[in-house]
Amino acid sequence: MDGFLLIDKEKGISSNQLVQKVKNTLSLKKVGHLGTLDPMATGLMILAINRATKFSNYFLESDKSYDALIQLGSSTDTDDAMGNIISSSDNIPDEKNINESLASFIGKSLQSAPFFSALKHKGKPLYKYAREGEFISKPPREINIFSIKDIKCDLNKCSFIIHCSKGTYIRSIARDLGDKLNCGGHLSALRRLSQGKFNIENAMTIENIELNKLISIEKAFSELSKISLNSIQTKVFMNGGKIQEIDFTDDTYKIYNSSEKFVGLGLVSNSVLALKRLV
């Protein structure tokens, strides 16, 4: 049983707890995830099962979309509702200013991660330093916000759908929005809707996992073109050798043996096929 499961994570459990619960419930040997969600967040988590864990890194660069709810008028030390309030304001701006400020996030920019994050400093997660009262700032990282839509404002609450690049902290968006509006803000709810081509609409709860909905490794790369090899080429490829004079453009491909069985991924460069990953 090798492939990917789309799980709708519930609120209140960590990503690791979800992984361990699925692993134990289904008696699986290996389970990994393709991107964490904070305990307070819900929504799409992609789990790699058994041999699929070897292919996880190919999806970590995927863009994501979220349904976010921001509380304006108060800032917290974690930039979300799990933290302690460190400042507050009754000066809540109007909807026009909120919309204009949100629009300013669209495009590429540099973002500072929350102090309470899993990013590491000297091999130790930042949140561990923060819990000890030491707040470590990491250099800002480039992110890309592709769109912010379906904006709804109600008193001191603001919700929207955001489509962003990997590595984007929605908690930081909430914090920075509050700073732009001079009233403070923090993330009060978050739901991941998509990651790359995978969507929450196809996800299952932990209690209702159906193994017939396991996405095979081959199907997970359905957008890639295929290359079929003869028996001699297959042997060379699977032993890590390079195959010359391949008449395909430079790209990553699904590779099949002479029996049309999917065996892994290969990279063509300058008409030479090299192994990327075997199933």
Helix and strand topology:
Blueprint: E1 3-9, H1 15-25, E2 31-33, E3 42-49, E4 64-72, E5 74-76, E6 85-88, H2 95-103, E7 107-111, E8 120-121, E9 124-125, H3 126-131, E10 141-154, E11 157-164, H4 170-180, E12 185-195, E13 198-199, H5 217-220, E14 226-228, H6 231-238, E15 251-256, E16 262-269, E17 272-278
Parallel strand pairs: 3-12, 14-15
Antiparallel strand pairs: 1-3, 2-3, 4-11, 4-12, 5-6, 7-10, 8-9, 10-11, 12-13, 15-16, 16-17
Structural write-up:
By secondary structure, the chain is α+β, with helices and mostly antiparallel strands. The chain folds into three domains: 3-61 and 199-217, Pseudouridine synthase, CATH 3.30.2350.10; 64-195, 2-Layer Sandwich (Pseudouridine synthase), CATH 3.30.2350; 224-278, Archaeosine Trna-guanine Transglycosylase, Chain: A, domain 4, CATH 2.30.130.10. 18% of the residues lie in helices and 37% in strands. It contains six helices and 17 strands. The protein has helices spanning 15-25, 95-103, 126-131, 170-180, 217-220, 231-238, and strands at residues 3-9, 31-33, 42-49, 64-72, 74-76, 85-88, 107-111, 120-121, 124-125, 141-154, 157-164, 185-195, 198-199, 226-228, 251-256, 262-269, 272-278. The strands form four sheets. Strands 1, 2, 3, 4, 7, 10, 11, 12 and 13 form a nine-stranded mixed β-sheet that branches. A hairpin with a 2-residue loop joins strand 10 (141-154) and strand 11 (157-164). It starts with a strand and ends with a strand.
